[in-house]
Amino acid sequence: MTGKELDRAKKDGTLTRDEISCIEMINSCLIYGSDPYAKHRKWWYKKGYCERSYMDDYIELLGADRVNELVEGQKKSISEAHINVNVYTDCEGLSYNSISWADD
């Protein structure tokens, strides 16, 4: 799902708010070269630290099958897009990427 398609889905209600949020997180992971399912250590969750992936909360909300479907769809969409690297650097020196979608 490209940026334009995601904007349309937000307006027409094709996707739930949780699905939209999940797609946005998937995009963020993919444009920085991260596996959305990778476990991260020292993630604060509820009452302590544990290993969790960015997708764990979405799997609880949407189910593993739906999240897998969204991840695979975004991998395809992003493979057809251009990732713009280091488009902005903030005051702490962190660099940010962006996406130029094929349909832009």
Task: Describe the structure in your own words.
It is a single chain. The chain has one domain. The chain contains 4 helices and 4 strands. The radius of gyration is 15 Å and the shape is globular. It starts with a helix and ends with a strand. The model has no long low-confidence stretch (mean pLDDT 91).
Question: Could you name the key traits of this structure?
Answer:
single chain, alpha+beta, two-stranded antiparallel sheet, 4 strands
* Shape verdict: globular
Strand line-up in the sheet with most strands: 1-2
Quantity of strands, as a count: 4
Number of domains: 1
Number of separate helices: 4
Helix content: 40-55%
Q: What ranges have pLDDT less than 50 throughout 5 or more consecutive residues?
A: none
Structural topology:
Layout: H1 3-12, H2 17-31, E1 40-45, E2 48-52, H3 56-62, H4 64-79, E3 82-89, E4 95-100
Antiparallel strand pairs: 1-2, 3-4
Helix pairs in contact: 2-4, 3-4
Write a brief caption for the model:
This protein is an alpha+beta fold. The chain is 46% helix and 24% strand. Helix 3 (56-62) packs across helix 4 (64-79).
